[in-house]
């Protein structure tokens, strides 16, 4: 699930990477979602029995590495629950409302430019292909890399 604002340069990288994943992953094995932001109704999508893993893709301001991947768990009892949620809070909502949440990871890409516009920063452009390969390795069983590996 890639999320971000496509009209805020690097902020849209999560959605751009989700679009690339949708082109590469077989639709019968993976559902790729793209959203402007995480909202409560998305917890239904991740709580489905057919979902065994969830990958959230966002950006982190001034991140130095091309991508950072780490495991996340349901949490956020005291978090904000409005029109914009954290992935952890979305997982917690899925757990509480539907009794299940999948194993989940958050992958962040660098965000150096978040001004109005669609042009990506040099760092974000360079990070996308590397992050795509790492996401494919995590999501495709035929690619055998450990999902516990944190960084490139």
TrEMBL record:
Annotated SUPFAM superfamilies: HybD-like
Keyword Phosphoprotein among UniProt keywords: no
GO BP term, pick one: proteolysis
Key words of the record: Hydrolase, Protease
GO molecular function: peptidase activity
Alphabetized Gene3D superfamilies for the sequence: HybD-like
Domain of life: Bacteria
PANTHER family named in the record: HYDROGENASE 1 MATURATION PROTEASE (PTHR30302), SLR1876 PROTEIN (PTHR30302:SF5)
Protein name (record): Hydrogenase maturation protease
Organism: Geoalkalibacter halelectricus
């Amino acid at each position: 699930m890639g999320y971000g604002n496509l009209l805020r340069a690097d902020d849209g990288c999560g959605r751009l990477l989700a679009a690339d994943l949708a082109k590469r992953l077989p639709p019968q094995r993976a559902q790729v979602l793209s959203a402007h932001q995480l909202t409560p109704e998305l917890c239904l999508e991740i709580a489905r029995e057919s979902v065994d893993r969830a990958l959230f893709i966002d950006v982190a301001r001034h991140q130095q590495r091309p991508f950072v991947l780490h495991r996340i768990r349901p949490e956020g009892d005291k978090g904000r629950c409005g029109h914009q949620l954290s992935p952890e809070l979305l997982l917690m909502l899925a757990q509480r409302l539907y009794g299940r949440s999948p194993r989940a990871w958050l992958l962040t890409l660098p965000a150096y430019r978040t001004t109005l516009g669609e042009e990506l920063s040099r760092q974000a452009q360079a990070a996308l292909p590397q992050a795509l390969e790492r996401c494919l390795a995590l999501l495709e069983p035929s690619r055998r890399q450990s999902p516990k590996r944190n960084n490139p």
